[in-house]
Amino acid sequence: MTNTQQLIRAVAEADSPALMVAAVQKLAAAKDAAAIPTLIAVFGYNNPGAAVVAVAGLTELGEVAVPELLAQIDDYNYGARAYSIRALAAIADPRALDILLAAAATDFAPSVRRAAAKGLGNLCWHKLDIAERHIAQKRALETLLSISQDSDWSIRYAAIVGLQALAKIPDLHGPIRDRFEEMLATDADKAVRARVQLAQM
User: Fold this and answer.
1) How far is 40 from 54, CA to CA, in rounded Å?
2) Which pLDDT tens digit goes with each residue over 40-79?
3) Angle, nearest 10°, between helix axes 153-166 and 130-147?
4) What is the value of pTM for the model shown?
5) Which domain range does residue 76 map to?
6) How far is CA 182 from the centre of its chain?
7) Nearest to 16 by CA among 58, 54, 55, 45
């Protein structure tokens, strides 16, 4: 049995929340692609401490984790789904674009929508060829502008974070600047207005 297999077994056999966190920390530290399915499975264990460690481990592994993360998105457990979206947002691989767009716009869980909205601004656009890049950036912009009008202030707040990152792209700066001015003038929530001001600095 390899070291990674032993670490995977330790996660499966952990019989307390603290042991689970410790086992996941060791598995994540191995930085072995063979650990990816187990790290994703941890999202569904109802152990937030272990899930946060698993997100960090998958983020460290980077691009190699993306296909499995995309394949294993949990349609039934929104907590697990939120951690998957967080990992995809942190890795910032543009292959996650469609999942992030759908999650930001339509997921019923605010935690999932917020994680996706923040991730949409920070994708590694340079990994796409120029034609694809322009289309992808436009789709991200349209989705974030749309959800910046959501009834939930925390979704609007997350949209601002995503838009702030997108505003670094010269072609997108104008409509984002205009939307920020509009939000500053009309948004009822003080925290949202303050976040717009921070984004404008």
Assistant:
1) 7
2) 999 999 999 999 999 999 999 999 999 999 998 878 888 8
3) 150
4) 0.91
5) 1-91
6) 26
7) 45
